[in-house]
Structure to design on (197 residues):
């Protein structure tokens, strides 16, 4: 008999975990609250008392994903000493993520693509998550002693890599983005921003 993973005792956490897995694997619109109920083992009545509507559940899932992203990226970056190498560790972190069998792209880009036009709250939270990532890169770029205008360029490389890896089903986009980041970082360190050569 296969060993079952122990579910959290907290019904709210069970619902969020189940919804996260279902939304990420199948898409938000394709998953109904009945699917979440079945996967979480929480009654429909209890589920709706915790999350009055699907948008509130989607936001809870995005908050969970934001924490996972922030903690995972921070751990990857903090494990490296040199500021330049910390910037490149972002792409190493992406490479590990892209290689996972469960990788289906950025959950925030996916949610924005599905619900952004109809859910201002989901669109706003997706934007907030992306701004948070850019702010983290601004701090890291400043620590590396280069112009902070490099940060949005590095962010775009990371975002493009996430989308490309999801569409291609290959982790190669991370190594391509890393090599492009090296070029941009070295140009910025030399005082010749890529856009002004």
């Amino acid at each position: 008999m296969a060993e079952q993973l122990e579910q959290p005792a907290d019904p709210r956490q069970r619902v969020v975990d189940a919804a996260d897995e279902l939304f990420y694997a199948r898409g938000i619109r394709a998953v109904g609250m009945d699917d979440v109920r079945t996967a979480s083992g929480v009654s429909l009545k209890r589920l709706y008392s915790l999350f009055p509507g699907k948008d509130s559940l989607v936001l809870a899932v995005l908050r969970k994903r934001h924490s996972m992203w922030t903690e995972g990226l921070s751990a990857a970056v903090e494990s490296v000493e040199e500021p330049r190498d910390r910037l490149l560790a972002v792409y190493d972190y992406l490479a590990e993520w892209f290689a996972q069998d469960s990788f289906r792209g950025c959950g925030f880009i996916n949610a924005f693509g599905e619900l952004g036009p109809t859910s201002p709250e989901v669109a706003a939270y997706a934007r907030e998550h992306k701004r948070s990532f850019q702010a983290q890169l601004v701090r890291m770029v400043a620590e590396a002693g280069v112009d902070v205008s490099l940060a949005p360029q590095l962010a775009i490389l990371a975002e493009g890599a996430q989308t490309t890896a999801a569409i291609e089903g290959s982790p190669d986009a991370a190594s391509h983005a890393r090599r492009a980041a090296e070029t941009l970082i070295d140009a910025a360190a030399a005082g010749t921003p890529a856009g002004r050569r």
Residues 1-5, 193-197 have pLDDT under 50 and may be disordered. The CA atoms of residues 76 and 93 lie 6 Å apart.
